[in-house]
Amino acid sequence: MTLKERCYPFAHMIRTGKEEGIYPYFRPVTRTWGPEVDVGDRHLIMVGSNDYLGLTHDPRVREAAIRSLSSYGTGPGGSRFLCGNMALHEVLEDRLAAFVGKKRAIVHTTGFSVNLGAIGCLLNSDDVILCDREDHYSIFEGCRSSRAKIVPFPHNDVEAASRKLAHAVQKHPDGVVILITEGVFSMSGDVAPLADFARLKKKYPNLWMYLDDAHGLGVMGPGGKGTAAHCGVTSQIDFIMGTFSKALASIGGFIASDDDDIIEYMKHNSKTLIFSAALPASNVATVLACLDVLEEEPERIQRLRDITRQVREGYRRIGLAVRESETPIIPIRIGPEEKAYVFAQELFENGVFALPAVFPAVPKGQAVIRTAYMSTHEQRHIDYVLETVDRLARKHRIRSVDLPESEAFLEPCDFAAAKSCGAQ
Ligand SMILES: Cc1ncc(COP(=O)(O)O)c(C=O)c1O
């Protein structure tokens, strides 16, 4: 098969979606105010962004980014290993480590490159990685690059993870065994039962725990310190990874740990750190300014939680199946992929920007519209979105009452673990 033949069926499918007017991705946003955006001549309410605290347009944050440009310029000039390491990176590392309750941290240029570089360099073919099936693609890429044995377990299923862990420990007595989970799952908004996972360490003290808290940082826990703090298990999580591309209004990522030796090893062996350019100063300064705002204005997080609660209640009133959680990611469950594309297109035509998540981001036939809310959404935004979703949900028959019983995933689930993290 030629390269052209390999690509043609896919390109054809995309072209058809565009011709039918239901292709939803890569929409060129021409202006953004945070909760409102322009796409060409359309003005829309954004309910798909990960800018959870609405800090991308905060004047203090923008000012900090601009100021750093005068001292450091626009680009880093190289990888951190060579000439791109700035004092500002190290200031941020100290600040992040303290923020998440760890001793040291290493900043990378994206969150994806943290997972790829860190997991890839820490583990090898003697080791076993237990992963939640719904972990982010970057985690799986890191696992693949490490060549360790990957053992997925069903989403948030502590029992299944525990069984697989017992087996792994028995079969690989000399290898490292690590459990990797997200704190807040990017598509479902579910919270991992971290306290239950951490409890596994009592029986298996050599188990390592790696938390990807991309969506929990700035959102969960006291002061937005993340899901480990929310669940009260910071000291039991060996690695806390986070990104700056969500609540921290920038791009970039970090990994934090209490172990100096492991940090030093990662710093010199993470390929994505060594062989990729450093995070530009303006991004670093943005994150530092966001951390200042978080400290000064904890009410932002409270406002986000209030909005989240209000929207969840609103979705329930409409009759949508909404899982128990307290995160600002609230998927609207649709089912068939085609229907999700049509639904997203009609949202768009009605002034609401939210995108479908389809396989492989979610299981086949279980497409959702991923809505996510921001602390800068105003009441008028929420009212308008709820009214629009209500109308379209009736039209497209996606309310619980309209769904066949066999679509179990659509049932509202009493996901106690999501609320309590399994904490006793
Ligand atoms: C759970 C999770 N981990 C890692 C990443 C990668 O982060 P970044 O966008 O900073 O590369 C994402 C991004 O979507 C994510 O959702």
From TrEMBL:
Swiss-Prot/TrEMBL cofactor(s): pyridoxal 5'-phosphate
Full protein name: Serine palmitoyltransferase
Pfam families: Aminotran_1_2
Domain of life: Bacteria
Family: Belongs to the class-II pyridoxal-phosphate-dependent aminotransferase family.
Organism annotation: Syntrophobacter fumaroxidans (strain DSM 10017 / MPOB)
Domain Aminotransferase class I/classII large span(s) in chain numbering: 43-388
E.C. number(s) listed in UniProt: 2.3.1.50
Keyword Acyltransferase: yes
Species lineage: Bacteria, Pseudomonadati, Thermodesulfobacteriota, Syntrophobacteria, Syntrophobacterales
GO molecular function, one term: serine C-palmitoyltransferase activity
Enzyme class: transferase
Keywords: Acyltransferase, Pyridoxal phosphate, Transferase
InterPro entries xref list: Aminotrans_II_pyridoxalP_BS, Aminotransferase_I/II_large, AON_synthase_class-II, PyrdxlP-dep_Trfase, PyrdxlP-dep_Trfase_major, PyrdxlP-dep_Trfase_small
